[in-house]
Design brief:
Elements (H helix, E strand, L loop, with lengths): L12 H10 L4 E5 L6 H13 L3 H5 L11 H8 L5 E4 L2 H7 L12 H6 L8 H12 L8 E5 L7 H12 L5 E7 L7 H4 L3 E4 L5 H11 L5 H10 L4 H9 L4 H13 L10 H19 L18 H16 L7 H16 L5 E2 L2 E2 L1
Parallel strand pairs: 1-4, 1-5, 2-3, 3-4
Antiparallel strand pairs: 6-7
Length: 354
């Protein structure tokens, strides 16, 4: 677990100082739009709480970490004995962390073979509870970071409740997530909640263009909208090879039954893109403005009943998007459903649809 690879986003320095000044409880919950840097900020907060510099000790961790003391180095390398980071196995794999590292030696082989879980399992929570019961190693605090906290299932969350309500000694819990409504009320009520604000659009566009030379501001704006305003979501689309042109062409391709470049996208992302198209078509049908696609790319003359039925089909497809389908056949099925849904509504005859 190399934490140093997860650095604060450029606009988060001021946000970090504000968070450190406000997060005073032993259990805190940072929430905001997914992909807005929750994990990076949470790790920076945990690092500040564990920092051993004189300034940090004097301020009780309410100032950013120095980045140079032994504790900061241990956090950066993932070996701080008083820091426990819990993320789903699938996220560990995407971050390059060894998701079998916490398994018993006899189980590590099996951990490597099985499919990484999308949830934070109860076994990981039990390990965190045991971690809380040991004494502090470096005389600052013990920090348990859970991200995203909404990935705890009911059993995992209930296992955490007692320790979360009354953390022993100098234990501090730091939970981060997307929507706070996705957190169980019993967990939410035990935490000090703090909303992570979204950055200004200009700062995000500058960051995307700097990180991807040759990307124009207009294309960055299209992809940022495609990601729902999520900075890291837009960066992930660029990493996967998405282009603004392909995104803008998606509604036309779907209406014409053409499997464009998007047909090669991973199935969960393709389903997500079609759900966004369905959302924008429904908004346009009701006289609203599109959120994810340019307004000129979204027709308003669709049939709302068809879109409603398509939305239900997409919800079903999303639940099983990680299933090992035959990719070609599944894309063809999704395209057939989409083309049927986006056709213009029948003409009105005598005040009723034909």
């Amino acid at each position: 677990m190399v934490v140093s690879l997860l650095r604060l986003l450029p606009w988060q320095d001021g946000v970090l100082r504000e968070a450190l000044g406000r997060l005073t409880s032993s259990a805190v919950l940072v929430h905001g739009q997914p992909g807005s840097g929750q994990l990076e900020l949470a790790l920076a907060v945990a690092k500040a709480w564990l920092c051993e510099s004189p300034a940090s000790v004097a301020a009780s961790g309410a100032v950013p970490a120095c980045g140079h003391c032994p504790a900061c180095h241990l956090v950066d390398t993932g070996y701080h004995p008083d820091l426990k980071v819990l993320v789903p196995e699938a996220m560990q794999a995407s971050l390059g962390w060894d998701f079998g590292a916490d398994e018993a030696d006899a189980d590590k082989g099996e951990a490597k073979k099985r499919k990484p879980s999308q949830e934070i399992k109860v076994d990981a929570i039990r390990q965190a509870v045991t971690f809380c019961q040991s004494t502090v190693s470096r005389d600052r605090a013990k920090v348990v970071l859970i991200h995203p906290a909404d990935r705890m299932n009911t059993v995992s969350a209930n296992t955490l409740l007692k320790t979360l309500e009354e953390p022993p000694g100098r234990v501090r819990f730091l939970l981060s997530c997307g929507s706070i409504d996705d957190i169980l009320p019993t967990v939410r009520s035990r935490c000090q909640a703090w909303h992570l604000p979204l950055p200004e659009g200009g700062a995000v566009l500058d960051w995307l263009c700097t990180a991807h030379p040759g990307l124009s501001a207009s294309d960055a704006r299209v992809l940022l909208a495609a990601a729902g305003g999520s900075p890291q979501g837009a960066a992930e689309l660029l990493r996967l090879g998405w282009t603004a042109a392909a995104w803008q062409r998606l509604p036309k391709d779907v209406a014409g039954g053409v499997a464009g470049a998007w047909a090669g996208w991973p199935l969960p992302l393709l389903v997500d893109a079609l759900q966004k198209l369905c959302h924008d078509l429904a908004r346009a049908n009701a006289g609203g403005t599109a959120r994810f696609f340019p307004a000129e790319a979204v027709p308003a003359d669709t049939s709302l009943p068809r879109l409603t039925a398509w939305a239900a089909e997409l919800r079903q497809a999303r639940r099983h998007a990680d299933h090992p389908w035959n990719a070609g056949l599944k894309v063809e099925s999704l395209l057939f459903q989409a083309r049927r849904a986006v056709q213009p509504a029948p003409p009105v005859l005598g005040g009723k649809r034909a």
